[in-house]
Amino acid sequence: MRHSVPTRSILWAYTGLVAFVLIAPTAVVIPLSFTDKASLNFPPSGWSLRWYGNFFSDPAWTSAFGNSVLIAVVVAVAATATGTAASVGLQRWTRRRAAKSTQALLLAPIVVPSIILAIGVYAIFLRLHLLGTLTGFVLAHTVLAVPFVVVSVTAALAGYDGRLTTAASSLGAGRWTAFRRVMLPLIMPGVVSGALFAFVTSFDEVVLSIFIKSPYLETLPVKMYASVTRDTDPTIAAAATMIMLLTTAIIAVGLLSIRRRKRVQ
Amino acid sequence: MSLALKEPVRPAGDAGRTGGGPTASPRGGPRLSPVLLLVPALALMVGVFAYPLAEAMWRSVSDPVLGGQNYEWFASGAANWAVLGRTLWIALLSAAICLGMAYPYAYLMVLSGPRVRAALVVIVLIPFWTSLMIRSFAWIILLQDSGIINGILGFLGLGPFELIRNTTGVLIGMVQVLLPFMVLPLYAAMSNVDLRLLQASSSLGARPFVTFTRIFMPLALPGVVSGSLLVFIQALGFYITPALLGSPSELLISQAIYLQVNGQLQWGHGSVLGVILLVATLALLAVLALLMKKAKRAAGDEGGLL
After folding, report:
1. What does CATH list as the number for A59-264?
2. N or C: which end of chain A has fewer CB within 10 A?
3. Residues B199-246: tens digit of each pLDDT
4. pLDDT over 90 at A213, yes or no
């Protein structure tokens, strides 16, 4: 449909405004992290790296960062393993109705508001003395990450031809060999993107983490949350910028590896 | 939905199901049910999802003593109804503002060429790059009294306005977070509209405005409905954004839950609020699922997994 020139220009201007709203928050944090003053004024009047120095010299920030990375890596591994196994199991399950409702249960953590899950998890972790433990964080984050693995691996399995597994077994491959050598390489893009989602989900998680943290063990987003509500210190901008860089790097590496794999095939 | 899982072609019988027919090598070991593969994930879901949720629900009738006193507390407190009403109102406003912002955006995505469209898609996905926390923090910087938005408004001779620690701040933050969830379904619905129908309408003499309102808008309606529901549902349960950008005197339901449980150790009260939020969310999700099913059936798509 062709619109008149004024209609089109209004549409463009409006879309530009919406695009600005979408980008603005991301665009403001990076320059702010390089400010030379101890204030959150934007745009900064001068530049320095002192907030990065501050970040790395403060054990509260570095330990929170270390915890976050450690927890996210363990969660990515755990969620990818259980989620991939579950997706394969779901696809092979011949009772479709049961498979469908099981899948709904596996995806449920995405739709339930995390504050409700948070109070339940808090109550139970309190009883089991899991508050402020790595185990507690890994368990809670893995539950939130598994649905993303299931979604992306299920989508990858949809494009997998089950006859290949049959062919592998008829040629003498055991079940594990057939999975590792035939199926896994073919569904790898889905597995990799599931793992990336799992990592980022854990790395960004705030609501549950606020409940299950302790003064002795907290993650980076929890520390940032406390920092936003308490101090007005650009160190948090430096932390935010580094999180963004890390997330971007992980996603870029993941995308590149998927692309290379595709090209090889 | 594009994620509909198509069954791959399989040979007769279930030889392909586990890959371990009678001719399989002995290395395959005894044949296991595929259900076993689900055990770790299901154990996790039951132990760290279903059980905690059940515990939270149970506490609404059992804390501090068994009975309905927590529900009575909710029903008799005017402040509780105010919180619920405010939450619904903010969610409704967020959905309406998102729709108003996303509709022209998605429409331009449909109209433009592949290059511009790709750029617009990337812009919609950029927010996913940055965590919710960081975005709320960035809005604090932009919207604070001495922030750049008030600076620009001051330059134009307006303001200064109070843009954070109130409903305006919450809405700005929430709309920014939720916009992608409106743009994407809208775009999906709009790009399914058969553009030849619009050409037919114009060739029969309809002005562009008439073609747009009488032909295009009704056809894109499913996207409007599912996008709005999606945004509304998510807005109900928001915690971080209102906690950082809102006013402590104008609580939303999730903030009230946090306050009851963490601040006042009133588990029963917090749990009642949680039950209400959960029931509202699930009811709306059921409506959304029903509408999607209907739309899918209308499109002649057989529903697979997902």
Report:
1. 1.10.3720.10
2. C
3. 899 899 988 889 999 999 999 998 999 999 999 999 999 999 999 999
4. yes
Alpha-carbon distance of A148 to A194, in angstroms, equals 6
Closest chain B residue to A220 measured between Cα atoms? B133
Please state the domain extents for chain A: 59-264
Contacts of B52 in chain A (CB under 8 A): 117, 120-121, 123-124
Asked whether the beta carbons of residue B21 and residue A169 sit closer than 8 angstroms, the reply is yes
Is A126 part of the contact surface with chain B (CB cutoff 8 Å)? no
- A171-208 pLDDT, tens digit per residue, is 999 888 999 999 999 999 899 989 988 998 999 899 99
Interface touch A228/B42, C-beta < 8 Å: no
Q: Does A19 touch chain B (CB under 8 A)?
A: yes
B6: nearest CA partner in chain A? A158
Give the residue from A258, A99, A249 showing the smallest Cα distance to A190. A258
Q: Decide: B141 and A32 in contact? Cβ < 8 Å.
A: yes
Q: Enter the pTM of the model.
A: 0.86
